[in-house]
Amino acid sequence: MSIVHPDRLLPADPATREIARRLYAEVANATILSPHGHVTPGLLLDDAPFGSPSELLITPDHYVTRVLHSAGVPLDELGRQVDGDPSTVPSETIWRRLAEHWHRFLGTPVRYWMENQLSDLFGITEPLTPANADAIHDSITATLVDPAFRPRALFNRFGIEVLATTDDPADDLAAHRALAEDDTFTGRVLPTWRADRFMTPDQAAWPLALNALAERTGIDCGTYAGLVAALRASRQHFVDHGCTATDTGVADADSTPLDEAEAERIHARGLRGAATVAEATAYRHNLLYRFAEWSCEDGLVMQLHPGVIRNHHRATFERFGADVGADLPDVASFTRPLAPVLQDFGTNPNLHLVLFTVDETAFSREIAPLAGFYPAVYVGAPWWF
Amino acid sequence: MSIVHPDRLLPADPATREIARRLYAEVANATILSPHGHVTPGLLLDDAPFGSPSELLITPDHYVTRVLHSAGVPLDELGRQVDGDPSTVPSETIWRRLAEHWHRFLGTPVRYWMENQLSDLFGITEPLTPANADAIHDSITATLVDPAFRPRALFNRFGIEVLATTDDPADDLAAHRALAEDDTFTGRVLPTWRADRFMTPDQAAWPLALNALAERTGIDCGTYAGLVAALRASRQHFVDHGCTATDTGVADADSTPLDEAEAERIHARGLRGAATVAEATAYRHNLLYRFAEWSCEDGLVMQLHPGVIRNHHRATFERFGADVGADLPDVASFTRPLAPVLQDFGTNPNLHLVLFTVDETAFSREIAPLAGFYPAVYVGAPWWF
Amino acid sequence: MSIVHPDRLLPADPATREIARRLYAEVANATILSPHGHVTPGLLLDDAPFGSPSELLITPDHYVTRVLHSAGVPLDELGRQVDGDPSTVPSETIWRRLAEHWHRFLGTPVRYWMENQLSDLFGITEPLTPANADAIHDSITATLVDPAFRPRALFNRFGIEVLATTDDPADDLAAHRALAEDDTFTGRVLPTWRADRFMTPDQAAWPLALNALAERTGIDCGTYAGLVAALRASRQHFVDHGCTATDTGVADADSTPLDEAEAERIHARGLRGAATVAEATAYRHNLLYRFAEWSCEDGLVMQLHPGVIRNHHRATFERFGADVGADLPDVASFTRPLAPVLQDFGTNPNLHLVLFTVDETAFSREIAPLAGFYPAVYVGAPWWF
Fold first, then answer.
1. pLDDT at residue C111, rounded to an integer
2. Residue A255's closest CA among A301, A202, A300, A291?
3. Is there a contact between B375 and C71 if contact means CB atoms under 8 Å apart?
4. Could you tell me if C218 lies within 8 Å of chain A, comparing CB atoms?
């Protein structure tokens, strides 16, 4: 029995609430098609029991850790590894931290979500408090040893029809292949091609990404032409493994192409560690244009998440790495920056460009109008990423 | 009898709905003063029967065609002329296309509007479907031969008190004059001066616009000073024909003036086909400033629609021309870009500057505050254009 | 008895209204902690009776005068001094002007606020009209001689626990000191440090500000280093007088620091009247960074109000001075422009940076996400300033 209110996200007005209930009832038991997620295929391949409650529900969830961080809790006290070293903080300690700060989550989707999990999945029917934190932690721990709480069992129980993961172009997709060939698992898990780290020739880690891709594809990435060939080979490899879509996250949606000579020039400067921010930005804009161009050929749906400044706090990035909650939204624009892509491919029947935003005003101002003219443009769901 | 719900655009909450009903009832039968429309005066002068249902309700309405276009229907299949050649697609075929895609319009003002017309004007009481598309098409066709459905009869039936058209500065306003002198028509139809095409010295069609204006006014437009004199003569001609307002659509509202030498320099470059985008933009900003300056003298109300990128898809523009639904909104700003105009004319009792936007957030952020200080600024209606 | 509706600012839907009533009842009688106001301490020190109704309720309130100004009433007819000379317009005349234009305030917070004052404070139970304007004016005048309507009596009646004023760094805080030492007044009134006028080396009044500060602190402000030392001495003087916070209003939130040599160069150019707009802007951005840096040391809470263009209408500013309603909002951004400050001090436990905006969309897009990661960031109230 759930302790969360069944109407918790529906309108308050009785007339519209009644309509919302009716609409929700029609889809509440639909199977899940997850077009863009962050589950690793290895999780389902290994099907090992989940770790501790904090490892499962707090440490890797940047929606949870960011709020605790903003309340002054350092990330290393929440189980994040520091300078590459794994954490030794006990799960109970981290869980108690969540309980102490639980009031800060009131009214947030994070709390709705967590309460939903605790109640409907783990059968915990009292609200989390510092006083019952240890007992709840132990209860979850006990539940997690139940085979019904292993990844594959949950995959089936949740009614997931398709799960798309997010994968690096240099990934050999061995886990996906093994999972597809595993007769004991019937779920459909597809890779998604995400090449963000190849778009940043001003970053210290960029040459490492090129090397990894070169090793995977056997194509030298020392030139722009080489990188293009390797990325396209990688896309084909993904397509061969069931991939249907790409995903791209960029600070802005500018999609101005470069001529090849200029792209080669910046590529060479990037390899020497000499690319300026302006050059790297132009290089990124060009690759965004190319991704659309390639989608017209290989048919991969193009998901685009612009308008977020990643790793906004450098010291946190250097100490704790990416995906800790420091990706912060900027004003997002689409109509002007996407003009180059839409000029050339906006009526191409092979392009399916899904535009996401965390700037809610962009839906009515730009995304819906673009989708209302261009056959290639689709409106993405209004959610964080 | 109408099949559209009388409360369809009112709030759902019963208390506010009751108030909304009361307010709406007070204005529902008011006469219409249309300050900015796209009816040509010739339509009322000739008073010929309307053409086919598609010619009347689909092909020229870019709100309708854009949604069909976004669903993959090419514009030439919707009756738009291609490369200047008129369409030969039968009205029934186009109408069937609308019926096939009618579900895509659910929840849009376009569908509300069309259902309102079909029901209240044409007496069609069943929803449009592919199955009844031909029957509905025939029913509208039959109705349109009724003299009560000619332009003048509808003008009177709709209770239109004043209708302002949109006219080019090079127009001689002969149709307006004839309409005003026609004793058999008592409606009031006024011209509106719209000079957008004179603001674009980087466009291939710009010299043609100058030539047309020169021919109309007898003033050589080969210089900036000449163009200014011709535009002002044209405004006077409009005022003499009852014009009370201008309208201007620009990508941004920047109103920085140029000194005359710089304006002349860009004008000359434009005539040689050598004006850059930056020069053309500066030239446009200067003309926007001049329009405000002239309004302080001749008293024409100044309507301004910034923030839309016109003809966003070049290939569509080249094939089908303007006004096909490819004018797409950008982020709009007013406070900073309009500073030059407001510095100099914001308290001038002769200026009435009406600011429109499709960026809804600009109302509370910029337009209302500007109107709340400057006597010259008015808040325009929140609608598409 | 109040004539204003007790639910006037609550939701219309009965279910949510009931919840809102319950929540409001819990805080309606709370004491007031005013973190940022525009009362001068001398008002409470002198405790003299207030002047006429217009002097109290119209002339100094730019929310009121701006609407009248937008209706075409010149500011000099509303009691504002012109070119530095005090007004001679009688209070009755100004009050009548308000009554004539009272319908223009319908639906605004200004009217809600004024009706609340007239009804609950002055016991006036009929709506203001031109017909009763004189009678209401006389009634307020009569009430204002009552000792219960002197500043200190109202301070107590309103349940003010703390009142923070807004003060110039060159202020010696004598009034605050005298008020704190006055045994007959027990209210807590704190100064707030606001240094906006020291951030504008391109303004004619900037050297005068430097001179005033130099005189107050005894530190020569002829160099940037001198100004920094004097501002920091001033902050310490404020802290010694109970100050807990600073306030800063800027056109944008860019906080890029300068190296000292460049800051000195622009400072010197400012003193020669030669600083460009670009130089003055860079100088301002640097000082914003310094204010955050200093807050990390002296612990003063940092209130920031970016996104407003002050004194938008130059002619009005030159004739009537600042704060007449011509401070107009621009698009506001936070995530990108505040990066320099947040990179360096965003996790500093001593920084408390409160972000305010009049661009409502910035709350969900930028301010809440920033506050949801950075311990130093707080969400300011959604109100005009």
1. 94
2. A291
3. yes
4. no
Helices marked H in chain A: 14-27, 41-46, 53-57, 62-70, 91-100, 109-116, 133-144, 151-157, 174-181, 206-217, 224-240, 260-271, 277-298, 314-320, 339-345, 361-362, 368-371
Q: Which residues in chain A touch residue B315, judged by CB atoms under 8 angstroms apart? A: 343, 347
Q: Alpha carbon of A180 to those of A44, A173, A176, A190, A241: distances in Å?
A: 11, 11, 6, 9, 9
Query: How high is the pLDDT of residue A382?
Result: 74
Q: How many CB pairs under 8 A join B and C?
A: 67
Cα separation of B302 and C135, whole Å?
41
Q: CB-based burial of residue A311 (10 Å sphere; 0-12 exposed, 13-18 middle, 19+ buried)? A: middle
Q: With an 8 Å Cβ cutoff, are B316 and A377 in contact?
A: no
Task: Look up residue B1 and give its DSSP letter.
Answer: -
Distance CA B328, CA C199 (A): 39
Q: What is the mean pLDDT of residues B341-365?
A: 94
Strand order in the sheet with A377-379: A245-250, A301-306, A353-355, A377-379
What residue ranges in chain B does DSSP mark as E strands?
32-34, 160-164, 188-190, 192-193, 245-250, 301-306, 308-309, 328-329, 353-355, 377-379
The answer, yes or no, to whether residue A383 has pLDDT greater than 80, is no
- Which of A330, A333, A361, A383 would best serve as a mutation to test chain C binding (most C beta carbons within 10 A)? A330
A337 vs A335: CA distance, rounded Å: 6
Report the alpha-carbon distance of residue A280 to residue A288 in Å, rounded: 12
Q: What is the pLDDT of residues B294-322, one digit of tens each?
A: 999 999 999 999 999 999 999 999 999 98
Chain A contact for C154 (CB, 8 A cutoff): no
Q: A70, C371: Cβ pair inside 8 Å?
A: yes
3-state secondary structure of A379: strand
> Could you tell me if B94 and B58 are in contact, meaning their C-beta atoms sit under 8 angstroms apart?
yes
Please state the ipTM of this predicted complex: 0.92
Q: Each residue of A314-333: pLDDT tens digit?
A: 999 999 998 889 999 998 89
Q: Are B221 and B227 in contact (CB under 8 A)?
A: yes
> pLDDT tens, A68-87?
999 999 999 999 988 888 88
Task: Check A336 against B14: CB less than 8 A apart.
Answer: no
Pair of tokens at residue B121: 């004007």
Residues A284-300 pLDDT 10s: 999 999 999 999 999 99
Sign of CA dihedral A379, A380, A383, A385: negative
**Amino acid letter, B23:** L
Handedness of CA B371, B372, B376, B378 (dihedral sign): positive
pLDDT grade, residue C385 (50/70/90)?
very low
Residues contacting residue B164 through CB under 8 Å, at least 6 positions apart? B34, B35, B36, B37, B189, B190, B191, B192, B244, B245
Asked if the model's pLDDT at residue B1 lies above 90, the reply is no
Residue C383: predicted pLDDT:
66
Whole-angstrom distance, CA of residue B320 vs CA of residue C357: 44
The reply to whether A332 touches chain B by the CB within 8 Å rule is no
In whole angstroms, give the CA distance from residue A206 to residue A198.
Answer: 6
Spell out which residues of chain B touch residue A348, defining contact as CB-CB under 8 Å: none
Q: What does the pLDDT look like over B124-143, one tens digit per residue?
A: 999 999 999 999 999 999 99
Assess whether pLDDT exceeds 70 at residue B383.
no
Average pLDDT over residues B30-58: 94
How many Å lie between the alpha carbon of C70 and the closest alpha carbon of chain B? 4
Q: Which residues of C touch B342 (CB under 8 A)?
A: 312-313
Alpha carbon distance A334, A366 (integer Å): 6
Residue B321: which region, alpha, beta or left (left: phi > 0; alpha: psi -120 to 50)?
left
Kindly report the backbone phi and psi dihedral angles of residue A243, in degrees, each rounded to the nearest multiple of 5, phi listed first: -60, 135
pLDDT (tens digit per residue) in C308-336: 999 999 999 999 998 889 999 998 899 99
